[in-house]
Amino acid sequence: MSTQVPAEREEPVGDTPAVRFVDERLGAAKVTRGALRYVFPDHWFFLLGELALYAFVMLIVTGVFLALFFSPSTATTTYHGGYQPLDGVEVSHAYASTMRLSFDVPMGLLIRQTHHWAALLFLAGIIVHVIRVMFTAAFRKPRELTHLLGVLLLGLGLVEGFAGYSLPDDLLSGMGLAIAYGVVLSIPLVGGQLGTLLWGGSFPTAGAFESRLFIAHVFLLPAAMAALIGAHLALVARHHHTQFRGPGRTERNVVGTPMWPGYALRSLAWMCATFAVLLLLGGLVQINPIWQWGPYEPWLGSNGAQPDWYLGWLIGALRLMPPIEPRFWGHTWAGNPFFGGVLLPTAVFGLLAAWPWVDRRLWTRDRLDHHLLSLLRDEPGRVGATAAFAAFVATIFLAGSADRLFVAAGVPYEAQVWVLRAAVFVVPAVVGGLAARAARRQGDVRR
Amino acid sequence: MNVLARALAAAVALRAARRGASGGPAPDGPPGPEHRTAGASPAATRLVAVLLVLTGCAGAAVGVLLALHASTQLLGLAAALAFVLLAVALAVASFRIVPQETAVEDRPPVTDPQTRAALTETVRAGGDGVSRRALLGGAAGVAGAGLATAAAAPLAALGPRPGGRLGESRWTTGVPLVDEHGAPIRADALEVGAFLTAFPHGADPRELGSPVVVVRLRPEDVSLPPGRRAWAPQGLLAYSKICTHAGCAVALFRYPLNEETSTSPALVCPCHYSTFDPARAAKVTFGPAGRPLPQLPLRIAPDGTLQAAGPLSGPVGPAWWGVGHS
């Protein structure tokens, strides 16, 4: 291990048996050597995507365990188990099996909570990664498709997360699903049909939905996401990582640590650190205690009920939307939830997906390949627009936690809603302007 | 523990030494950033060995704790400890044991114009001698559309057509109001300012059309439209409990305790703050709801219990294309 290795090897050295075995059967020596010499740029920015990747690994591992015990049925049963206060209460199999996982299955609660924390970290990792990509313009040619796959992954991740916490059929699940049903119904023309199609009848009495949601959560969506992650990574590897400007770094090379052995060990360390944090959270920090929420009944509700944070901008949008429900010729052309629940996310994701092309028209203005990352001072306009976009979503997100602010500071939610309705337009303009100015100043100082 | 402390001390000393040694990375300008140094630090090697053994111990501890029915907290701590130790071992190995290398790799060119020209030619050559492309293309489109229809048709089996049944309820004239356990509700069970949830006797309480919220206001405060004057005997009012915005339960009843400072009575949905005025036929006074809560006309039976005096005034729950007017 500690012997000095010559930098250039001219003479073929003796084969290692393992290498020979593999190569004589797969003929993969060239590809494998290329992979081992793949160079990763040394910057923590490039760890954000990896963070999401390792959280996804944790989701798969813990999710498989949970799926072995969870029973996706809303048929009722009488709960008996480790949680005394609910003993003898009529609940659904979904709720009862989640309770069993939490109180009676060995290590079940640790794995369930770790799974939930991993979902939060997975989406946080993707979102911070996207913000990094947007500000450094890493999406430019030839990486537009990589960006598109990433945006798609984020979208599926949101749906997957929502599907996950909707499964246990606790009060929070049910309130979320009621809203989802309302949003589906609100879609012009086909909403009613689509709702009864997806739910197999009317919410919540049609029993078909729970198992459909389960199949989506444990098979359809994870399979699609795994495929997208594979394609995303294949494209990253095809073009190699982007890099910041620096000594010896050009558009035609990558400077950094090769995969073998330095980066592989570093990345595995990062993976283990991610796992450690998730297990620590799963073990020590309670998340989604469904026994406190109780089973869902359509006539129950509670204030202070919050979705997982990554849906905060959607509930915020539903709250901020004024009471508009256009009706003409005896039809409701769009239920109110359509605007915040369908139109807004479609617009946000559409803009995210189209961003590489928007950027090319407005700021990059060429059809060349760009492998060196843009710095904030390079393009103040892009910085301002990106900051404004982020501020827009963040302001709507604030409305998602209005009842927290009400409880914490006593600001009535009516006042909050009115202020935020205005802030949705004002804050992005101000933040965008300030960000662009700061970027321009930074550029002036450098020059 | 002693071993761990010594190992950590060694790591700190090692780091300090490294920092001193590599004070000048010697960037000689033009030659480029590549460099490679090999030579594992003996202290780091020992540290990694210790950390790996401890990782094994922490992993085994998880098994032991599980057998002892240890708490979730202990299990999480032990499992996290194993991964922390492994993470540190891998990081130390990466930075202090294996060769340190900064390499420069040429980026593979994305395209090669010649190959692309050859590809274009290959694709084009596949159509040599083919005439009437528009006909074939059109026919293939028909085939595709037909097959897509065939593939999509079974999806219709997933759910029934909504028809007029979305938003329907079991409330009709004479249906008694019962509580969660099926017991009838007496008119005198509610004081002014109180509220409760009621269901139609004999119906599935989980249907969205079932739950109604019953409130009692002072009769002089109630101001219903002309056609509904008789719907609120003794100031008792009932409205569908399912929000007309997104279908949550309208679970909050705000009733002023001090008339000087408080706002008027309101039914509030905790999800998106749709606020309805129970005194004025559940008119929307704040929030996103697009229409009032459907009202249930009430009457008091001779035995003092509450009954529906008719069906709900409109369809229940969130709006859809066919919700119509209420």
UniProtKB/TrEMBL annotation, chain A:
Domain of life: Bacteria
Cofactor(s) it depends on: heme
Domain (Cytochrome b/b6 N-terminal region profile) ranges: 18-245
Transmembrane segments: 44-70, 117-139, 145-167, 179-201, 213-235, 268-291, 338-358, 379-398, 418-439
InterPro entries: Cyt_b/b6_N (IPR005797), Cytb/b6-like_sf (IPR027387), Di-haem_cyt_TM (IPR016174)
Major enzyme class: translocase
Keyword Transmembrane helix: yes
EC number: 7.1.1.8
The protein's name in its UniProt record: Cytochrome bc1 complex cytochrome b subunit
Catalytic activity line of the entry: a quinol + 2 Fe(III)-[cytochrome c](out) = a quinone + 2 Fe(II)-[cytochrome c](out) + 2 H(+)(out)
Organism name: Paraconexibacter antarcticus
Cross-referenced Pfam families: Cytochrom_B_N_2 (PF13631)
Classification via PANTHER family: CYTOCHROME B (PTHR19271)
UniProtKB keywords: Membrane, Transmembrane, Transmembrane helix
Keyword Ribonucleoprotein recorded: no
From TrEMBL, chain B:
Primary location class: membrane
Positions of the Rieske domain: 209-307
Subcellular location: Cell membrane
Chain spans, region Disordered: 19-40
Membrane-spanning segments: 47-68, 75-98
Membrane disposition: Multi-pass membrane protein
Keywords: 2Fe-2S, Cell membrane, Disulfide bond, Electron transport, Iron, Iron-sulfur, Membrane, Metal-binding, Oxidoreductase, Respiratory chain, Transmembrane, Transmembrane helix, Transport
Job description of the protein: Iron-sulfur subunit of the cytochrome bc1 complex, an essential component of the respiratory electron transport chain required for ATP synthesis. The bc1 complex catalyzes the oxidation of menaquinol and the reduction of cytochrome c in the respiratory chain. The bc1 complex operates through a Q-cycle mechanism that couples electron transfer to generation of the proton gradient that drives ATP synthesis.
Family the UniProt entry places it in: Belongs to the Rieske iron-sulfur protein family.
Name used for this protein in its record: Cytochrome bc1 complex Rieske iron-sulfur subunit
